[in-house]
Amino acid sequence: MVNQKTEDEGTDNRVHLRRSISLVPAVSFIVGSMVGSGIFIAPKGVHINTGSVGLSLLVWALCGLLSTFGALCYAELGTSFRKSGAHYTYLLETLGPLPAFLRLWSEFIFIRPAVTAYIALAFGHYVVEPFFTPCPAPLPLIKLTSFLGVTFLVAVNCWSVSLASRMQVVLLIVKLFALVLIIVPGVMALAQGRTENFENAFKMESLSLAKLPLAFYSGLYAYSGWFALNFVTEEVIDPKRNIPLAISLSMVTVTTLYVLVNVAYYTVITEDELLRSDAVAVTFTSKVLPRMVSVVPLLVAMSCLGAMNGGIFSVPRMLFVAARERQWPAIFSMIHIRRKTPMPAVLLLSPLVFIMLAREDIYQLINFASFSRWLFIAMVTLGLLVHRYRFPDHPRAFKVPLAVPAIFTVVCFFIVGLSLYSDPWNTGCSLAVTLTGIPVYYLTIKHSYVPSRWRKAFNYCSRQLQILLEVVQQEVPTY
């Protein structure tokens, strides 16, 4: 399923990222990045902020539609610009270097470490807690398991692109089995007439406009990852065909599965049971498949592992491209001479993830990170509109109707703006931390005010690190 050959057999011995991701691994990469801990945790967050079954299901469907609109916009951008890097590259090409750097800065400083640590902790909980039920599992052991899971995936992604890609396919199969294990009993129960939980589905008593964006944040978090393939454009075989096709297949699949999973949840468990549960999938299985209840935590843990693998595989490509554009230290644009992996960029994310794992308020950091993530996604699709206006003749192998990026951009900015009202502390802090990248940009990139001694020391450390890691600059252009 992974093509081991390069585009030019004559360059096999030269150092560059290979085009080794065909259609099936591309679909598994997107779906695997999307289906993680979110669908097993987020239903509670969506329901708390909507207050009714019908509105919750509507939010899940709208989140799928909104994510599909965004994914189609990224499909156009991915076929218009041949570079990897996703958000960073598209902002650089459409709105300029400062927005691109701020996206890079926020991703490295808190978005990716927080998201990865969150999923890693979910992985640790689902692996460890079954051994201690009904007693609470010790938190240090959970964090140690999370640490080992992240370390394993970092090692795999440093070792081989093909191995990481194959593992994503295998973990996707496990995830789909976990979802089917929920959907089939739930749909069967619904067909047998268990509709009592859907009575008065659209009650509006507890609906609040202030809470609505938080419901969308929970739902969109579960869908997040639809942009994962755009991080590795330079490694996709026939990107003009496979990127739009993989994105379209993935979005239809995931949206359908997510809505069916939530219908299954509400068919079997009541609203009160859902709100009391910290692991909705386990609560569901204990009622319909009690013999399988011990298997579900393992399936969810594997699902989390796949989502982490998608992030650890993709985001370092953003650092790789930024270093190539001279907006990040050059060492991170280097590739291992034998493994052909961007090892320095992969390793760079690990320390901040480990620091996040040591924190106690990691779950609060997800809301903190979501504001900045969706602000920049809205800016990317705004950049698509600007680029279309400025360069109408730019070749676009795949082009979405103008209404799609326009609607997506307006809705994203509306959700982001309303969240400033709903959760001013977390969103305000997120904006403030993002803006700290402005002085960094002007002091170190736009104008170099770094003392010469510091530069010499940094260059020396970079050379020693290059020797230690056995990495060099890419020898063959891949875009």
Automatic annotation (TrEMBL):
InterPro entries to which the protein is assigned, alphabetical: AA/rel_permease1 (IPR002293), AminoAcid_Transporter (IPR050598)
Transmembrane spans: 21-41, 53-75, 109-128, 140-162, 169-192, 212-233, 245-268, 295-320, 365-386, 398-419, 425-445
Cellular component, GO annotation: membrane
Gene3D superfamilies linked to this entry: Amino acid/polyamine transporter I
Annotated compartments: Membrane
Record's keyword terms, sorted: Membrane, Transmembrane, Transmembrane helix
Membrane topology: Multi-pass membrane protein
One example GO MF annotation: L-amino acid transmembrane transporter activity
Protein name: Cystine/glutamate transporter
